[in-house]
Amino acid sequence: MFNDTITAISTALGEGAISIVRLSGSQAIEIVDKVFKEKNLHNVKSHTIHYGHIIDPEDNTLVDEVLVTVMRSPNTYTTEDIVEVNCHGGIFVTNKILEIVLTLGARLAEPGEFTKRAFLNNRIDLAQAESVMDLINAKTEASLKVAVNALDGRVSNLISDLREVVLGIVASIEVNIDYPEYDDAVVMTNEILKPQIQNVITKMDEILEVAKTGKIIREGIKTVIVGKPNVGKSSLLNKLMREEKAIVTEVAGTTRDLVEGYINIGGIILNLIDTAGVRETKDIVEAIGVERTKKVVNEAELILLVLNNNEQLNKDDEKLLELTKDKKRIIIINKMDLDSNINKAKLPNYLETSMLNDDSILMIEKEIKQLFELGEIKSQDLTYMSNSRHIAKLKSARKSLGDALDSISNKMPIDMIEIDVKEAWINLGEILGEEVGDNLINELFSKFCLGK
Length: 452
Known about the structure:
Order of helices and strands: EEHEEEHEHHHHHEHEEHEHEEHHHH
Structural class: alpha/beta
Mean pLDDT: 84
Strand content: 15-25%
Helix content: 40-55%
CATH topology of the largest domain: Rossmann fold
CATH class of the largest domain: Alpha Beta
Low-confidence stretches: 245-257
Shape: flat
CATH architecture of the largest domain: 3-Layer(aba) Sandwich
Number of domains: 3
Strand order of the largest sheet: 3-4-5-2-1-6
Number of strands: 12
Largest sheet: 6 strands, mixed
């Protein structure tokens, strides 16, 4: 338990119907009781709400009419005493109540400190704590379900089960080291440890394969629209987003910087980037835009390459076809409402579209769903590992077990094999927060919103 009491505004800043000032710590009830007019909060039952008024202790003037919720340790979000003051949602009155509790001894909470305390007080593990922000940031039903399931402990249970098996392997090795007369070393490694390690690796591979979908659900698909100037990239962005996000003119080179937005397709977010047209240019500003385009193409997970049906393919088109050939991409021949001058024989699979026709957008969305197999997501159990940190640690654990198998094949001493197996166990523990340092914990929680 912590010695101090923290406080923060837990609702979004701005005017609204209500705001919540939250306190957590051993002095939470005492601090609010000093300024709550109607009732002695020390005597109320846990998890009850009380009507009354907050007064300013300096001059005993009325500040606001409020509802105060009292939740006693240990059955709270942080496992500490928590008090929430539900006040009217004005910016001034909310900040005034926050100011009052700060003057009475509370400390302003750091971003994510309420959840950090829940983790450090062992109410949730680190994987569950990180899912809190995923829950807040969810933009689709699928991403919401993935976050809820992670918060509920499904991902944690998955990793805990793996870790338990790996720990059993470590125990078997140590028994062999401490009591070598019980098992022959060669039999131990080849007949007992090898299949056990292989089984864990197989399970890890299954989780990592499913995690590809989980990562897409959580983070969306970074989608870049590319093409030479005036092929209809900005019109495509506007049509996909159903709003006039980008400026559209007949002048080539209108888009000189990246224009971004996002759309929901089949429960998956497409993070769209409309880029500057790629062509040889002496215009300094346009040239900078072209370089930025090339950079985001390298980082993209999906390329929408737009070509002009009304023009022949030129060297700029060919450069883009070459630049994107190894990426997941959809080639779009646009402006099908105009005369066709493009040589389609040179192109692989493509879609024919016109931004004057809404059916073209539906066709593109259908192609994206097929390309990423998005149609299967809703019918599956949404227990996905989706956090990039978790996936990286699981991959590290899998590599360590792979190294252990190599050591077995090379007839290395059993204590050398144990080093790799223990490393896998440690990496799995880092997902749950059992093997992490203060620096990582502070960095992770600093990304949370204030008051959570």
